[in-house]
Write a sequence for this structure.
């Protein structure tokens, strides 16, 4: 066990745990979050920290580049889809937030590879980001004056693509149309800590 983690755990036990012992004990009986956040696994973007959320408030799904895959019937292992199913079908969350961020390495890889899968099938990473290939066609490169602007445009487009993919799941679309679930897209800027709302109409 890394010393850094053990030291942090000791501070947690002596500080946060002692101050919130009753609330944490109550959470052992079950969770009832109202919000599901699909976030990147980038170490610099922690949804609970960004939104000042307490344990039990957010159901967080993290993956490379905060991507939501489209509905797929084949295959056996769909971690993100399974987590979304649990959040929407079982926990009955009222909001799903796709939280993208600036300087996303997954989106950078998407741009570098053109969204093409690894022909040898050996790179989980390349094959994962290839699902966002439509993003590259949605961005008007002529409107971007710099590489940073193009990167940001792709990050925004990826969020919109994930919002569209969410609606491909019938149990999400049904709840949205019934007014029981709302979908949101946000983009977090690491340097300025600003949050931009991304809509399908952008």
């Amino acid at each position: 066990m890394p010393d850094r983690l053990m030291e942090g755990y000791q501070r947690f036990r002596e500080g946060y745990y002692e101050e919130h012992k009753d609330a944490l004990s109550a959470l052992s009986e079950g969770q009832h979050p109202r919000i599901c956040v699909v976030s990147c696994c980038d170490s610099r973007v922690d949804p609970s920290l960004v939104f000042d959320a307490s344990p039990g408030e957010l159901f967080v799904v993290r993956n490379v580049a905060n991507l939501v895959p489209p509905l797929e019937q084949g295959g056996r292992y769909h971690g993100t889809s399974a987590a979304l199913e649990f959040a929407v079908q079982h926990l009955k969350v009222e909001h799903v937030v796709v939280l993208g961020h600036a300087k996303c390495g997954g989106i950078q890889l998407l741009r570098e590879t053109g969204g093409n899968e690894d022909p040898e099938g050996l790179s989980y990473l390349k094959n994962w980001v290839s699902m966002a290939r439509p993003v590259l066609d949605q961005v008007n490169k002529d409107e971007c004056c710099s590489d940073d602007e193009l990167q940001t445009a792709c990050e925004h487009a990826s969020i919109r693509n994930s919002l569209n993919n969410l609606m491909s799941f019938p149990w999400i679309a049904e709840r949205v149309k019934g007014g029981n679930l709302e979908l949101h897209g946000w983009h977090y800027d690491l340097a300025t800590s600003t949050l931009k709302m991304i809509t399908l109409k952008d």
User: Anything to note?
Assistant: The first helix runs from residue 3 to 19. Residues 108 and 151 are 7 Å apart (CA to CA). The chain has a mean pLDDT of 95. The two ends are 46 Å apart (CA to CA).
